[in-house]
Amino acid sequence: MRIHAIQTGRVQIKQAQIEGRGHGLWRQLQPMVSRQWAPWCPVYAWAIEHPEGVIVVDTGSGAHLKRLPRWHPYFQFAVRFDIEPEQEVGPQLRSLGISARDVKTVVLTHFHIDHDGGLSHFADSRIFADRDEIARTAGIAGAIQGHLPNRWPKWFDPQPLAWQPSRFGPFARSARITAAGDVIAVPTPGHTPTHVSVIVRDGDEQIILAGDASYLEATMLRGTVDGVSPDEASAKTTLADIGALCAASPTIYLPTHDPQTGERLAQRRPVGASNHTSSDREPAARPIDRRSAIPI
Ligand SMILES: [Zn+2]
């Protein structure tokens, strides 16, 4: 299965957002009050070329994000975008030979502005997200939480993911994205209460399109909660669950903003494999030992 990593510009956030500092409200305030910006990070969207039609996971950012509402402290003090219209997901898909009509399905991991920023390119696709993520982010209540529902296309009417009580590794439920069952969503609450990740099963490998379950593979392995997750305990549980899944079989872990994500996909480099160049990397890497990778 061919998976495209499509970088839709860059975002800059604070180091205290990538790796949370302290606990509780203190942790959640740091991304706004800290002056320590992290290096610019990529913003990825994904296209999976599947026999049942192209599946896009997250729509990335849009050029409209260079102008953000000044009234919101997070937008004013904690985030900056760098993206031009031709870097949006739609034009990049077209340059790959994928038309909007080829995209049957879009899945949103969550409704943060750099994940739903390219929705306007998918008027003819079925769009799925968690039911409660859809409800929580709409209207004024959604805007106060830092979403931009007023910038959603008028036609935007996402369908709720159809959760089934079918276990996938540590996850108690899952939702099929394809009839074949080789692309599924799993609940990865933490970064938002109803965040989901998408897992692609491709032969012996599985690929996690992780959204913002963590910003980096390294923070997932360390179990370090980010600076914006509202519920630290559920975020920690999710990171441990993802770590357990990665330990059980070769897994390529692809967070939206990890600078290593594009290279990791190109090399199909699983979690726990060292960062070799393509010329010297081993053909198959061993899964990590969870006991050493995730301190408790
Ligand atoms: Zn996010």
Key terms:
296 residues; alpha/beta; seven-stranded mixed beta sheet; five-stranded mixed beta sheet; disordered C terminus; binds zinc ion
Gist of the model:
The chain has 296 residues and is of the alpha/beta class. Helix content is 24%, strand content 22%. A hairpin with a 6-residue loop joins strand 8 (175-176) and strand 9.
Detail the poorly predicted runs. Answer: 277-296
| Cα-atom radius of gyration | 18 Å
Largest pleated sheet: 7 strands, mixed
SS element count, helices = 10
Main sheet strand line-up:
4-1-2-3-5-6-7
The fraction of residues in strands falls at 15-25%
Q: What ligand molecules are bound, each kind once? A: zinc ion
Measured distance between first and last alpha carbons: 36 Å
Structural category is alpha/beta
Helix content: 10-25%
SSE arrangement, N to C = EHHEEHEHEEHHEEEEEHHEHH
**Number of DSSP-assigned strands:** 12
What shape does the CA trace take?
globular
